[in-house]
Amino acid sequence: MVAVVKPVIQVRAMRAEDLTMVSTMEAASYDYPWSHGIFNDCLKAGHPCWVLCVDSAIAGYGILSMGAGEAHLLNICIAPEYRGQGLGRHLLGRLLDIARWNGAERLFLEVRPSNPLAKALYESVGFGEIGRRPRYYPARDGREEAIVMALELLPS
């Protein structure tokens, strides 16, 4: 019988030396990716920036902004080769914990209507649509609206 070795999954604070990998992952995942500079600015601004590692390899990342008892999920991504394994749900759960630990009572995010898998993930953990932002995202045919979602954060 062959022993199955489970991968070690860790969520840790993003570091400056992670930015090249994070930027590469972003570019592989989105038609209109954030630049290396935007990620660097988030780190410099002190936003909670986290990476999800599988056996020490960066497989995803998430960035929050915090203020006035609220959190905003600015960006979350799992590398294409790691998708479909529940890692997005795992990372989102940790980001919700981090928001709670930082005193947030609710968390907001925007998601593209053209990203139904992400929307379904958010809904599955309790996010609900609270509005739409017209022409929010760049798109091939001009601009795409954003679905604005929110989740009330109860103590964990």
Structural description of this entry:
It is a single chain. This protein has 156 residues and is an alpha+beta fold. It has a single domain (9-152), classed as 3-Layer(aba) Sandwich (Aminopeptidase). It has helices at residues 19-29, 36-45, 87-101, 116-124, and strands spanning 9-13, 49-54, 57-67, 70-78, 106-111, 128-139, 142-152. The N and C termini lie far apart (40 Å). The mean pLDDT is 95.
Query: Cα distance, first to last residue?
Result: 40 Å
Q: Label the structural class.
A: alpha+beta
| Overall outline | globular
Range of helix content: 25-40%
Number of beta strands: 7
Secondary-structure arrangement, i.e. CATH architecture: 3-Layer(aba) Sandwich
Biggest sheet descriptor? 7 strands, mixed
Give the topology string: H per helix, E per strand: EHHEEEHEHEE
Low-confidence stretches: none
What name does the CATH topology carry?
Aminopeptidase
Provide the number of structural domains. 1
Provide the CATH superfamily.
Gcn5-related N-acetyltransferase (GNAT)
Strand order, main sheet: write it out.
1-2-3-4-5-7-6
CATH class category name:
Alpha Beta
Count every helix, treating DSSP H or I runs of 4 or more residues as helices.
4
